[in-house]
Amino acid sequence: MAGQRVTLDITDLAFGGEGVGRIDDFVVFVPFTAPGDQVEVKLTEVKKSFARADLVRVLQPSTERVTPLCEYFTECGGCQYQHLDYLAQLRWKQHQIRELLRRIGGFDPSIVHAVTPCPQPYGYRNRILVRSQWNKPAQKLNLGFIRSDCNLVCDIKSCAIAEPAINQSILEWRRNPPPKGGIKTVLRIQPEGWEVPEHSFFQNNFFLLPALLAGVKERLANSGATHLIDAYCGVGFFSIELASVVESFVGVELDAPAIRAARQNMVTRGILNGAYVAGDTDQLLPSLLQRLDPTKTTVLLDPPRVGCRPPSLEVLRRTGPSQILYVSCHPATLARDLKSLCADGRYRLVEVRPFDMFPQTQHVECVADLRLAGPLPEGEQGDPPPAA
Length: 388
Hints:
alpha/beta, 3 domains
């Protein structure tokens, strides 16, 4: 029952960062624990098949446990893994991706490569979102990140996973704070040579970005495709960097300022074999795919964390581009979408390459390579959705 204290052996690490222990066959999830820990916990929520608990104390530490570098760790909600050795983080992230693909998608776990490590596991983030919140009991303005245990703001003076220039910006922001609570502020280092509007997306880790790009480029070149559709293209990073591999490309993005920036980024680099279109991917994909030879086309998907919407997956299955490269920062929604694309043997998942773009946190970037493998089932063979 809630409030009860129990002793657990932590044997696993669930996706999201919680350690997994068991009372007989009853699963208990405990944040900030490591596989190999023996811990005393306090049950906070008890359901029919599982419970959640808070860590009271570590009775016997795991050999994978290390001392966190951040003074706000366990209070601030930004990091989940600072108490884990970095090599252990990489191993457990690979394990989590494999289990999600197996459990959600029914895929062979062996297709998931080892996680490519970040050369700088701390001090890597080039963008953060900070918040202000009025702390009524203390009669002060809290400035920082959402806590791990509630929706209140943890007052912070620095962030261990942020680049030094971002931490300098945090100090300047604190010296000139917002006038009231409830205000969100983006602190960002602009990527050199790229135009990126304030609220548009760009990868948050410059240190591992070259390896991520190299992985995508290698898989695109391996396919032999001559045309590229860069869906959810943002400011055009992938398509601009991949322009030399294909004869032509087109980028699609709903964020109009990002599309304007993508066009300028293309002009700045003197690239002439591409174009960018502002609009909804679901609506624009059908017409774009109809213009190209599907046997020579790769579609690069880099959607938000929620993944692709069903209309986009449906048009991809109907049109059948020879390759789909799916870049995702959320393995669970990735597994769900891969299952839809590969249903009835339409596509084959060749491999998944994870990249640790977010050390010390639960997040991980994956590049999945899918190849067209078979015809549409008879029930799906009809007219494609109308082009926008």
